[in-house]
Amino acid sequence: MDSEELKRNLTSGRHWLRLLFMVLFVLVLYVASVVMAVVVVLQFLFSLITGQDNLNLRRFGHSLAQYIYQTLCFLTYNREDKPFPFDDWPSEEENTVAAPVAKPRPRASRAKSAVAKTAPAESTAAKSATTKGPVTKSGTATKAASKTEAEPSSSEHAPDESTEQPNI
To answer: Which residue, 33, 57, 75, sits at the end of a domain?
Structure first.
């Protein structure tokens, strides 16, 4: 690099104007981080009190995170476009909100679902007892009964509607 090029870079208004915007966006980034901390605390409180997150806070938190990312990209010269207010606020169309985290069901419904899961297995065992095949002294089919007792079937996770029959 020669001295002429250095002199041109130092006197270029483009670099000094960018520095001014960078200082401005560092201050904006500080405010945005404080707002993000408030969103995090509010989201935790909503989750604690209601048992689920607030969709509006989650959306705002996501767009604010995208804004913070855009600001950091501008500050680190990975982006030439200035973020909001010189550009549009990050929107839902540009960036999708992450899918909500699967929430564990309350214990009462877990107990219900456990009973519901065992019911098809019992009906399968009862159904297999009426089929032809090797029968034990108790009157049940040995293969089918031992399979339902020893190996958990895939129907426990996703019941197969074709094998289930309504109890009459």
So the answer is: 75
> Looking at the domain assignment, is residue 81 inside a domain?
no
The three-point CA angle 32-37-39 to 5° equals 90
**pLDDT tens digits, residue range 122-132?**
444 444 444 45
**Contacts of range 23-32, beta carbons closer than 8 Å, 24 or more positions apart:** 25/71, 25/74, 25/75, 25/82, 25/83, 26/75, 28/71, 29/68, 29/71, 29/72, 29/75, 32/64, 32/67, 32/68, 32/71
Q: How many domains does the chain have?
A: 2
User: Can you say how many angstroms the Cα of residue 60 is from the centroid of all Cα atoms in its chain?
Assistant: 15
Decide if 98 contacts 137 (C-beta within 8 A).
Answer: no
> With the C-alpha atoms ordered 25, 27, 33, 38, is the resulting torsion angle positive or negative?
negative
Instruction: Summarize the confidence of residues 100-119 as an average pLDDT.
Output: 52
